[in-house]
Each structure stands twice: as C-alpha cells, then as structure tokens.
C-alpha cells in the first residue's frame, strides 16, 4: 500500500530536504527551513447580521525573512489548516528566492467559507483578521496579498483597517489592492500570464511549436482563466477546462474569452456552448501537449501520475503534484514547470506594486508585463541550466537555486 502523504507540510519538507541533500549544506540549514520562524494563531470574533457573534480561527505563518520582509497571500477557505498555511509560507520563501525578490515567505488563512457570509460580515471578518495580526505585519515586516477566497476588495478593507491602527496611509502594507487604491496595473492577470510564459519556455526547450500545442486547464478562477487568455494570445489551442463543478471538452478549441463571459454569468465552465462534458479525472489524464494545474493541492498523486499523457505540466496552483507523483512523471519524461516558478508572476507583480507604493510610482501595464517577463524567463533559464548540469528535475533545481540564496543570506547575516 502507498505511504504517500498528502499533508502539504510533509510534502514541502521532503522537497526542501531533497534539495538540501544535493546541495550538501549543513544539517542546521534543513533544521531551520523545515518549520516557519513564527506562527500566529488567532480567534476572530465577528458580529453576524442577525446580531450573534461567531468566532473564526485564523493563522499567519512567517517562514523565513533572511532575504527581506516576508510576503504571502491570505486564504479564506473552509479547509484551511495550520499545516497548510505553514507549507504555503515555505513555498513562498522559495518562490521569492527563485526569481530573486528581496522577500522571505509568509502565508495567512482563515477557516471560513466566504460564500456563506454577507458582504458586511465578510468586511467585519477581514478587518477583524487584520486587527488580530496587525502587530506582526507592515511594509518592512510582512506584506500580505490575496489568495484563494480573497480579492482586491478584501485587501482594500484590510489596508483601511491597518491605516486606522497605525494612524497614517500605508498602502505598501498589502498588495493586490484595487487599482484606484494603490494597486498595480497587470496584477490581476499576472499569475496566469506568468503560467503561459513558462509554458511557452518549456515548449521551446522541447523543440515543439506553440501554435500546434493543445492545452487542458484544471481550475478556471483567477489563475486558470488568465492563463487561458494568455495561452490563447500566444497561439495555443485550449481543448479542455474544468472547475470544481465539472469539465468541458472540444477538440476544435475552446475560446477562453467567451468562456470567461460564460463563467461570469453562470459561475461555472459547465454547459459552455459547443462542448461536451468530461470529468476532472479525464481532464488530468487527457492526451494534450500542456496540462495547466490551476486549482488546489494534491491533484497529481501516485494514483494518477502514471496515466498522465501531457508532455508538459505547468503548475499554476501551489503544491498540485506530490513528491511520489513527481518521481513517476520524471521517469515518464513529463516536463514539469514547478509551482514556485510557474506561478511566481503573482508575487513578482505584487513586488512591483509594493515598489510603486513605496516610491509613489505608477507604471504602465506594458512596463509591468515586460519586467515580469524578464524576471521569469531569466529564472526559467537558470533553473533549466542547473537541472541539466545536475541531471535533476526542474523542481529540484528550482529549490537548489532558492535554498542557496536563502542559505547565503542567512550565512552573511550570521545565523549559521
Ligand atoms: P480561485 O479561487 O480564483 O480559482 C480556483 C479554481 O479552481 C476555480 O475555478 C475552482 O472551481 C477550481 N477548483 C477548486 N477545486 C477544484 C477541484 N477539486 N477540481 C477542479 N477544479 C477545482 O483561486 P486562484 O486564485 O485562481 O488560485 C488557484 C491556485 O493558484 C491556488 O493553489 C493558489 O494558491 C494558487 N496561486 C494563486 C495566485 C494568485 O495570484 N491568485 C498566485 C500564486 C498561486
């Protein structure tokens, strides 16, 4: 029987250990990196619309700040756990490190289904969460952003609450804000755009032609939909998409723009005109050139990795592939662009937003996209070269580059 663990913390620790062992760094490096440096667990009382008080559980995990202030999103989801938040904060450290941002990693979460709250309740919860963690965040300390279940509006409420606490305007405390309130152009599309860029680079390395490529996308929220729109812009053909409600297929191609309109109207990709229904599992094992994973963790495991027929997997989601599945995919010759690189576009443009807020700049969308492309393509090339040199997969090479940066920063700071 498989002993595969689906606990994201255990998975993150395995990924770090593997890279530390290949790098040959002291045991103390792994000991430091295998857990966050600080975790805050909070209880948030919220007055509901009927006058009752409901108490929500929340977390903020700050993994490592050797390279700079910590950075990472806030997730509102009923399945949030402390281990998940810890793992996500660890992945943030290595995501920032791999593309060379001056940040460490953090992540926050509240155990809640935001869809079950009214707008007013959601606002009170968002403000309550920020009051609970205000003492450990700040533009020079820890800078939150949106993640699953949160959005630009929620970030605006949170910054407003933080401003009341500190007594001045501090837009750089949180990124992913609305454009009118210090947000950056290009931020909403950044993660999906980056996923498409990384798929393009992988296609080049495999000597394939992007124009002939077929694509399947799991998850059509912020990341999946913008990946779809950018992939279409780059010339690829999307033939299958799924979300939590089900999937759709059309071998002649699915128009991403029209599908976004359909999802905005109906809330799901299902029943999109001209498509036939498919299951989530059928999509994951479909014969396509590129499989974009843009939903949640643990989608490709030892149970289905052998059935994957895609040539390239591009991980828009965090942690969608388990280490056991990684091994199987590597043996099958599937080219995996790992999450810490593939979905780094979000934190890169968050970094641009922070820089613009601190300096009172306002960059154009073109400037943002060009800077993002340069950072991500450079990171892809360094990882690819290292992977070839050490004969390891792209994920291990990405961790090696990132852990080396964090290690060197810890060393010069006298931590080791
Ligand atoms: P989202 O909530 O906007 O979209 C999630 C999508 O996945 C939805 O279409 C949902 O229906 C679908 N989904 C959920 N469970 C599913 C399941 N079991 N099977 C199939 N589809 C399912 O979230 P998002 O912001 O697009 O984030 C998606 C992933 O990308 C998460 O892992 C997140 O941590 C990661 N990520 C997001 C960003 C960002 O900027 N939004 C940045 C980096 C990483």
TrEMBL record:
Q: Output one GO BP term.
A: L-glutamate catabolic process
The record places the active site at: 107 (proton donor)
Q: Which UniProt keywords apply?
A: NAD, Nucleotide-binding, Oxidoreductase
Which parts of the sequence bind substrate? 71, 95, 350
Q: Which residues bind NAD(+)?
A: 191, 222
Domain Glutamate/phenylalanine/leucine/valine/L-tryptophan dehydrogenase C-terminal, first and last residues per copy: 184-414
Q: Which SMART domains match?
A: ELFV_dehydrog
Q: What residues does the record give for site: Important for catalysis?
A: 147
Q: Which residues form the signal peptide?
A: none
Which family is this protein grouped under?
A: Belongs to the Glu/Leu/Phe/Val dehydrogenases family.
Identify this protein by name: Glutamate dehydrogenase
Can you name the source organism?
Caldanaerobacter subterraneus
């Amino acid at each position: 029987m498989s002993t595969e663990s689906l606990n994201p913390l255990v998975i993150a620790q395995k990924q770090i250990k593997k890279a530390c062992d290949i790098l040959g760094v002291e045991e103390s490096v792994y000991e430091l990196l295998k857990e966050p440096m600080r975790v805050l667990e909070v209880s948030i009382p919220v007055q509901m619309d009927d006058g009752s008080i409901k108490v929500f559980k929340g977390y903020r995990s700050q993994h490592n700040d050797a390279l700079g202030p910590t950075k990472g999103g806030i997730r509102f989801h009923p399945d949030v756990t402390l281990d998940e938040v810890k793992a996500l904060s660890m992945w943030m450290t290595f995501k920032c490190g791999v593309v060379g941002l001056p940040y460490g990693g953090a992540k926050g979460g509240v155990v809640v289904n935001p869809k079950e709250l009214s707008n007013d309740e959601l606002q009170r919860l968002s403000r309550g969460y920020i009051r609970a963690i205000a003492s450990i965040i700040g533009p020079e300390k820890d800078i939150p952003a949106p993640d699953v279940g949160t959005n630009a509006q929620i970030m605006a409420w949170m910054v407003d609450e933080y401003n009341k606490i500190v007594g001045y305007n501090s837009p750089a405390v949180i990124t992913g804000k609305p454009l009118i309130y210090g947000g950056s152009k290009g931020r909403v599309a950044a993660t999906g755009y980056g996923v498409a860029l990384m798929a393009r680079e992988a296609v080049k390395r495999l000597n394939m032609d992007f124009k002939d490529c077929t694509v399947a996308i799991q998850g059509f929220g912020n990341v999946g939909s913008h990946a779809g729109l950018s992939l279409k812009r780059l010339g690829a053909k999307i033939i299958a998409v799924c979300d939590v409600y089900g999937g759709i297929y059309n071998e002649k191609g699915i128009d991403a723009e029209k599908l976004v309109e359909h999802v905005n109207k109906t809330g799901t990709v299902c029943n999109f005109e001209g498509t036939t229904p498919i299951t989530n599992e059928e999509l994951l094992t479909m014969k396509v050139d590129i499989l974009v994973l843009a939903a949640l963790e643990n989608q490709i495991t030892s149970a289905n990795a052998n059935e994957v027929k895609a040539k390239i997997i591009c991980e828009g989601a965090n942690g969608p592939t388990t280490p056991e599945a990684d091994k199987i995919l590597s043996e099958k010759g599937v080219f995996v662009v790992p999450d810490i690189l593939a979905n780094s576009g979000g934190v890169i443009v968050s970094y641009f937003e922070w820089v613009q807020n601190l300096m009172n700049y306002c960059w154009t969308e073109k400037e943002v996209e060009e800077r993002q492309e340069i950072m991500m393509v450079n990171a892809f090339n360094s990882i690819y070269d290292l992977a070839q040199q050490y004969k390891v997969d792209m994920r291990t090479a990405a961790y090696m580059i990132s852990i080396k940066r964090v290690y060197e920063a810890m060393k010069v700071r006298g931590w080791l």
